[in-house]
UniProtKB/TrEMBL annotation:
Pathway the protein acts in: Amino-acid biosynthesis; L-methionine biosynthesis via de novo pathway; L-methionine from L-homocysteine (MetH route): step 1/1
Example GO BP: methylation
Keyword Hydrolase: no
Annotated family: Belongs to the vitamin-B12 dependent methionine synthase family.
DNA damage as UniProt keyword: no
GO CC list: cytosol
Protein name per Swiss-Prot or TrEMBL: Methionine synthase
Protein's organism: Caballeronia temeraria
């Protein structure tokens, strides 16, 4: 070794979810499906959302799904267990909107940490119940985009206006992530990203949390392409989106939500060619259809058939469902992908896989 050569430092080992990289080498992992779609099946009214604790709360809170981890934990537990029984390897916590920024819509900012803690407890109990040595289950702390955007104006007449700052988002994400970590999640899922700057705030908060705690936990990153332009809402193509966030060294990178699987395919194919990490895909059950039971068109056989084609083409390492998908969808997806080999890293990255 020459005098100036710097020995390559070994990659730091994950302190949780350490089995995931080896599992991803062996098979396609299955993510769960929609939480909101399943909650709708229970037809909960305002009183059910409130429970005893919030019966006198001063404003309507129906629709605040994260609150159900506190007021109706049995509903969330049942949904988790249905997805695990269907074959999910990775279970998302019921925390998509459990940040101060999102909870401000209901005046429940101060409950954000508690929502995350209770949600992890429910997912952890369910995963521990279903885990076996051959099929371990993992709790993914779900981190949603918030209803606010750091890089797009809420006022069409004032392009420079913003209704949230980067620092406000970072602080809200840090609070959420710390609660998720303290309660026992195995990995983080920063999902349904429509604004890359929001995602950067979340990833900055996670980096800070790892520094503060000494933990290093796998991160899944998932964006959402909002229309046929192939861009996320803040304007990036999927390739630009990947290059903006790859510095976070995510365990998986992919797309979810907005489009059904058929329309999502070209963008997943593009990521599969360029990502030096594992690729995830969990689409909606087609496009919205208010006449169907789930609010979406695709039945389990259709969604699973599309994802099987993705898998057979060597495009994915993690597959699951987003809006409109149910345990029936996840069961069909798990069955369809059980014998399909996971995507190999692109040839330019083979040596790092």
């Amino acid at each position: 070794m020459t005098q100036n050569a710097i020995p390559k430092a070994p990659a730091r080992a994950y302190t949780r979810g350490a089995a995931l990289p080896a599992l991803l080498q062996k098979r396609i992992l299955i993510l769960d499906g929609a939480m909101g779609t399943m909650i709708q099946r229970y037809k909960l009214d305002e009183a059910a959302y409130r429970g005893e604790r919030f019966k006198d709360y001063g404003r309507d809170i129906k629709g605040n799904n994260e609150l159900l981890s506190i007021t109706q934990p049995h509903v969330i537990r049942e949904i988790h267990e249905q997805y695990l029984a269907a074959g999910a390897d990775i279970l998302e916590t019921n925390t998509f909107g459990a940040t101060r920024v999102a909870q401000a819509d209901y005046g429940m900012e101060d409950l954000a940490a508690e929502m995350n803690i209770e949600s992890v407890k429910l997912a952890r109990e369910a995963c521990d119940k279903y885990s076996t040595p051959d099929k371990p289950r993992f709790v993914a702390g779900a981190i949603g985009p918030t209803p606010k955007t750091a890089s797009i104006s809420p006022d069409v007449n004032d392009p420079g206006a913003r209704n949230v700052t980067f620092d406000e988002l970072r602080d809200a994400y840090y609070e959420q992530a710390k609660a998720l970590l303290d309660a026992g999640c195995d990995l983080f899922l920063v999902e349904t990203i429509f604004d890359t700057l929001n995602a950067k705030a979340a990833l900055f908060a996670l980096d800070q949390l790892f520094e503060d705690t000494g933990e290093l936990v796998p991160i899944m990153i998932s964006g959402t392409v909002t229309d046929a332009s192939g861009r996320i809402l803040s304007g990036q193509t999927v390739e630009a989106f990947w290059n903006s966030l790859r510095h976070a060294k995510p365990l998986t990178f992919g797309l979810n939500c907005a489009l059904g699987a058929a329309l999502m395919r070209p963008y997943i194919a593009e990521l599969a060619k360029i990502c030096d990490t594992y690729v995830s895909c969990y689409p909606n059950a087609g496009l919205p259809n208010p006449m169907s039971d789930t609010g979406f068109d695709e039945t389990p056989d259709v969604t699973s058939g599309l994802l099987k084609e993705f898998a057979t083409a060597g495009l994915v390492n993690v597959a699951g469902g987003c809006c409109g998908t149910t345990p029936e969808h996840i069961a069909e997806i798990a069955k369809a992908l059980a014998e399909v080999k996971p995507r190999a890293f692109p040839s330019q990255y083979r040596e790092v896989a």
